[in-house]
């Protein structure tokens, strides 16, 4: 097995064929949804910027979600554990 085959995970010809088929499918889907690679890049950039701009508010929301969830999950967990001890 050559170093190139080991690196690619298959023979170079098979890898080229697989990548061509996947590229065709992805290109078709992008055309159907009227997306370009720049649209995807812009969406990712905007998402990162939005998260960055949220700053400490996002961390506060995250902690609030954990606390609210724990207020429901922990008592239910304890009740289930207590009921299982009786068996």
Q: What is the molecular shape?
A: extended
Overall pLDDT level:
90
- State the distance separating the first and last CA atoms: 59 Å
For the report, how would you describe the main beta sheet? none
Determine the fraction of residues in helical runs and give it as a percent range. Answer: over 70%
Query: What share of the residues does DSSP label as strand, in percent?
Result: under 5%
DSSP helical segment count: 4
What structural class should be given to the helix and strand makeup?
A: mainly alpha
Instruction: Please state the CA-atom Rg, rounded to the nearest Å.
Output: 25 Å
Poorly predicted sequence stretches spanning 5 or more consecutive residues: none
Number of domains: 2
Order of helices and strands: HHHH
Keywords: Membrane, Transmembrane, Transmembrane helix
Organism: Chelativorans petroleitrophicus
Domain DUF6460: 51-86
InterPro entries: DUF6460 (IPR045594)
Q: Could you explain how this protein is built, in words?
A:
The protein is an all-alpha fold and 87 residues long. The protein has 2 domains: 1-34; 36-87. It has 4 helices and no strands. The longest helix is centred in the last third of the chain and has 30 residues, at 56-85.
Keywords:
87 residues, mainly alpha, 2 domains, transmembrane, transmembrane helix, DUF6460 domain-containing protein, membrane
């Amino acid at each position: 097995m050559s170093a190139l085959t080991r690196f690619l995970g298959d023979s170079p010809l098979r890898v080229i064929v697989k990548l061509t088929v996947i590229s065709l499918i992805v290109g078709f889907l992008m055309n159907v949804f009227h997306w370009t690679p720049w649209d995807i890049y812009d969406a990712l950039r905007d998402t990162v910027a939005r998260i960055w701009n949220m700053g400490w508010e996002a961390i506060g929301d995250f902690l609030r979600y954990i606390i609210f969830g724990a207020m429901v999950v922990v008592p239910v967990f304890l009740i289930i554990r207590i009921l299982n001890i009786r068996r």
